[in-house]
Please model this.
Amino acid sequence: MNNATSSFHGSDLEKIAAVYGIPKESIISFSANVNPLGASKQALSALSDHLSVISAYPDPAYTELRKAIADYTGAVPEDIILGNGVTELLKLALTAIRPKQTLLVGPTYSQYEEDLSFLGSKTDYLLAEKERDFVLTPDDVKGALKEDTDLVILCNPNNPTSFAFREPELRSILTTLREKNIRLMIDETYVEFRMDEEDISAVPLLKEFDNLLILRGTSKFFATPGLRLGYALTKDHLLLDAARSVTDAWNINAVASFVGARMFSDTEYISNVRKTMEEEKNYLSSSVSSLPGFRVYPIYANFMLVELPERLTSTEVFSALIRRGLMVRNCNSFPSFGERFIRICFMSHEDNVRLFTALSRL
Model:
């Protein structure tokens, strides 16, 4: 099977079902990185009692939603840009910044490169190496800068390696970038899964650095990809004004606004997701590590990067598992991985046991 066929996105269940001749409903996706506990029941219950929100325009200022995000993150409402998911916010931010020379820290999410290419930005790459467990340092980032670099993009924790810089390291990077008049864009899509989120998130640094832009979405942690709700945080007022000038008046629909304002305040749900993901991370990572020839790299997100034994390829493993209704991410489309790596998201305990059992029988 060729690489294009075996490197499906986690949401490509229709394509996978057609290619392998299996019902879409029977596939358990360890590839989409979405919280398996589902959306906040508290928020969904509130929505069921207020379905009439679809009969009116949302507040164009999104006052309630902004306040909920501000309370949740510790940012201030004025520093928030709302968007139709991180995908829209990424395009919006890059269009406003118009970078000429971007340093992309990877291997990472391919959408960054695609959007940069569309805008005509020249792109340099800092690729983490297997020999160093895909771990990078602030000095690595600083050393990769060029004289004309005007933007650095990093996913923290990173997809697919699951590595993360900690707050002191981010401060060090930001200090150097500010001296060189370079912006830093951080995608924090997966940071909320951490029990020690405050040690990794760059949100506290917003008060200190106006060359920082943080992207977050609700699809993964809050398990609401259908809402298409995302937000960006920054103190860069030029960027705030530029982004808002090209944003539609009602770019967030009434349902997303209503649910968002409530799920951010569901502290019991948030705590339960983090606790469950920590437990399943410990179970699945230790179980897979015990298999001969399998190697699990350092984990800072709700997924892990796994190096396969030499006798197996990622395409073979993907095909063997999908025929059992288990979908992992074949990492052969990422630069420098080749046919040796898969990415696995932590799901329910029952599903994780099923995946481990299947891997152990390969």
Observations:
- The first strand starts at residue 28 and ends at 29.
- The first helix runs from residue 3 to 6.
- The chain is about 40% helix and 15% strand.
